[in-house]
Structure formats: structure tokens, C-alpha cells
Amino acid sequence: MPSLGPLWLSIQLAALTTLVLLLIGTPLALWLARSRARIVPVVEAVTALPLVLPPTVLGFYLLLLLSPDSVLGGFWLRLTGETLTFSFPGLVVASVFYSLPFMVQPLQAAFAAIGRGPVEAAQTLRAGPLDAFLSVTVPLAGRGFLTGAILSFAHTMGEFGVVLMVGGSIPGQTRVISIAIFEHVETLEYAQAHLLSAILLAFSFAVLVMVYALNGRWRIHG
Amino acid sequence: MVETLSVRLARRFGDFALDAAFALPLSGITVVFGPSGCGKSTLLRGIAGLDREARGEVRLGGEIWLDSAARIFVPAHRRGAGLVFQDARLFDHLDVAGNLAFADRRSRGQGGGSGLDVDRDGVIAALDLAPLLPRRPARLSGGERQRVALGRALLSRPRLLLLDEPLSALDRARKIGILPRLAAVPERFGIPVVMVTHAIEEAVQLADRMVVLEGGRVIATGETIEVLARPEIYPLTGRFEAGVLIEARVEEHRPGDALTRLSVAGQELVMPMLEGLAPGQPVRLRIRARDVALALSPPRDSSIRNILRVAIVGIEAGDEGAFAELMLDLGGQRLRARITRASLRDLGLGPGMEVFALIKSVSFDRRWIAGNPAQS
Q1: Class of the CATH domain delimited by A5-221
Q2: So what's the ipTM on this one?
Q3: How far is A60 from chain B (nearest CA, A)?
């Protein structure tokens, strides 16, 4: 029986990453959906880069970003006395970049589909910008939020290459489920690899079924 | 208290430019009339505060909503201008009751201009919304959506209610259903209405005052009757055909003949009987130019009963086309007649002549039948 520690660590990482992505992905997606600035396509391309870059490339640049010599890594070192590389907080930062398109794209599509109409209607009914966003845009984009959150969570759960580049395999810190599977296979512990792989497979399948079922149901409702 | 809405707005989109200015006392219903693409909706969005690019000034009473020279822009949610959009824009995630509550919750304690209370139950009753309350917007018909949108806007207790072609998406039967409810809004809830439309019939039926827009500019403003009599708006009214509105008073009903007798400038008109009108009540009549014929002496052997003594004050006749238009004075009110140029020549008609106007058909403005002799 393998240790389930890596599974638990992956869940923590995915949950925290999803939370952070909800906070920064929402304003970003809103801006991408609404703005007519010329820089929009550039920002869209940057947001989508993690979809096409090999995890080694992304991981390499993240390693530079997180290192104690960089602005971010140095700031973290002064703040906490620890380095971001090869640490759990560093994995969260890396995962946020890695899963960004999975949050931003469904949200952006949802906001674009809603358009300005309902928000303008809310404004003429005395709702301020934040009020209109929370009471009209968010519920109307509910499907986008759920899809984005579920996909971000699942994508982070399955993260491997980037973790390997910036996190290594420190038990309880950076040894997430995919890394654990890799090491079990390397050391020919196939039974353990089987079990963890089956858990991840079942989880991913369940998540996708949930996303598709959800999308179907919400369409009828609209 | 009647407040003044003064507007001076400029806005460009590509090669279209809106540059409109007017000031109107706000009471009853003001209709902004003009052809499609003349800038009506842009104007309304500028007044509502939905267009940050609009330049100029907007004031309601002593309050400044926009003064771009002084960099003042009051955002839409602080203006208290309700807006009913052409496409209703109900919130799909809420049922009808939820849509109404959205507005109601955010406007408690906001008095309408006149201090009349706008209460939820009153709005639901006035617009007959009770059966719709549990329904989702997706399950409403076009007319129902507009009624809900109107109710929702009223429940935001606005100081001014703006309507952007609220009837344009509706078929004729539904229009007839919603028109009288719209007409009753200013009096029932004490909220002045500014409505945009390209349909002259709606303007005639609802407007106390009109602003006529063409190509982004105001070409006429004033009382409806007076504006509709102006020749410069004539090309815009199109198939409406130079109708005029005149004011008359109910004298008596003759149930035996199913007729109602009216007086206009001391003369008499009879119409099919109008239920529910009390003698003495003022009504607004619409008479189209093509329904008016002229005679030099009152015919004694005609089936036409409505024969009025009028004086010719103007003649518009080109060198082409079969018809000429005559402007007639009826005790200070204007009437128009459309006759052939041949008749004009054969009868020897000219300005200053006293003639008899034979009126083939008169129609009523329903709004006045509903008993709102709106005081302007």
C-alpha cells in the first residue's frame, strides 16, 4: 500500500491554485472580454501560452522567476526566510501560471456571451459596478465559473513536468501524485504505481463527466 | 413640481454625428421621434449615463448629470433615470418576481419626482403582472417581457423614465395592449416619461410634447399638436400623411343614433358613440389630410355630416404630382386638406378664402379617451 500523502498534497495544491486563479483570473477574463484596447490579443496570447509550451520550457522560466536572485524569489526570501524554488508555495505560483488558461478561457467566453446588456440594465436600476457584477454578471456566468474552477483543479492535479522542474520531489512539500507515480515506476514498484494511477484516472474521468453534465443542464436552464 | 430636462449632447461614431440640444419641461410623456439611425437611442443612452464618450451637458432640474467641460459625469446608477430597452434585458437568472425585486430593493426610500409612492403591488396591478411572477424571462412572450421591463424600471423609482422603442418588437395586438398602460404611467406613478420611437402613430397617441430628430440634429420641439402641424417634419412622417390633431370637447351622447356630438371652435362634429366619456371632457382628434375635402358652399345633399367652416391660410402645390395640400384655420386650430391640383384650379381656391371642410373620417387618440387631458 503506497502512501496517500502525495494524493493529499495534490488536492491541497489544486484547491489553493484554483482559489488564487478565481481571484486573479476573474478580473483578467472580464478585462479581456470587455476591453477594446489594442493590447488585448497580446495578453490573450500570453494567457494561452501554457497550453502550447512544453512543461520544460515553462518550468525553466518559472525556475528563473522563482529563484532567490529574481525579484519575486528574492522578495519571498526576505518575507519568509525560505526560497520559493523546491517549496510548496513555489508550486502554487507555478501552478497558477500553468493552469491560467483553464480558468481564464471559460470565464472570458462566459463574460463575452453575457455582453454589456444585463450590466447596463442593472446600472439603470441603481446597481453600482460591484453590485452589478456580483448580482448579475456572476450568476449569469455561473457555468463559466464552475467549468473554469473544475478544469483548473483537474489540470493542476495532473501537473507533472513543471513540478519536476521547479519543485523536485520533497515528501510533504513538492512530491505530488504524478511525481510519486513516476518514482514508483522508476523503482519498478508497479503495484503502487497502479493504485495511484487508477485514482488519478478515476478522478479525471469523474471531473470531465461533471463538466459535460453541468454544461448540458445549464444550457436548458438558460 | 415640473422640472426641466435640458440636454446638449454631441457624439460621433465614424461618419455619424449626434449633435442635439433641447430643453423641455418634464411632465407627462415626451416623445423623441425620428427615422431609424437618426441618433435617438444614442441620445437616450447619453441621458441615462450609459455612454461615457458623450460630450456636452445634461441637467435635470437643478442637478447636473453631465458637464463634460467641467469633467462631471454622474454614472448611470446615481442618476435615477430608469431605462426600458428595446430588447427588455430582463435578468435570465431571476424569475419575474426576482427581476422586480432587484429594482425594488435598490430604490427603497427614493421618491419619484412628484412624491407619489411607487409600490410593488401597485405596479403589479397596473401592469397586470401577477400571473407572470413565478415565470422565467425565457418563458415570456415579447409583450410580456416589455410589461415586466416597464414594471421593473418603475420599481427603481426613477426621477425620469426613458423608453427606447419599447413597442417596436411587438405586433399590433400587443401594442394595443400595452399602449394605454404606458400612457397612464406619468399620472398614475408621478414619473415623467421620455420615449423614443420611429413610429409616428405611437408619437401621436402618446406624446404631450415632441422632439423631432433627423440626421443627429433636433429639427423641431414643442407641443405635439403644434409640432405635427409644422411643414418641416412633414417628410419624416411618411405614410402617416400630414395628419393633424385638433382639440375638441364632448357635448352630448345620442344613444338613439349611437353618436356622440363634439364641439370644435364653436362648431359641431359627430362621431360614433364613445362610451365612457363625460360631457365637457376634452378629447384629441386626429384628422388626416386625405380625409378632408373642400366645398365652396355647404352641400345639402351629402352623406357627410361633419362640415366645418374654415379659412384657407396656405397652399402647398408643386408643379408636379396630382395633389396639393391646403392649410386651413379652424378657430385658431390647424387643419390640412389634400385635394387634387385640378380641383384647386377649378374651384379657384386661394389664401384668405372661407370654404367648407368636409370631413370623411375622424379618429380618436385613445390616450385622451383614457381620461388624461395632460396638462402641458
Answers
A1: mainly alpha
A2: 0.78
A3: 45
Which has more pLDDT, B188 or A43?
A43
Contacts of B103 in chain A (CB under 8 A): 125-126
pTM value? 0.75
Closest C-alpha to A206, from A161, A153, A162 = A153
Q: What SS3 class is residue A174?
A: coil
Place of cell 478580473: A27
In the chain, the amino acid numbered B150 is: L
Average pLDDT over residues B163-179: 78
Topology of the domain comprising B3-235 = Rossmann fold (3.40.50)
With CA atoms as reference, the chain A residue closest to B108 would be A126
Looking at domain B244-369, does it have CATH number 2.40.50.100? yes
Q: CB–CB of A120 and B91 under 8 A? A: no
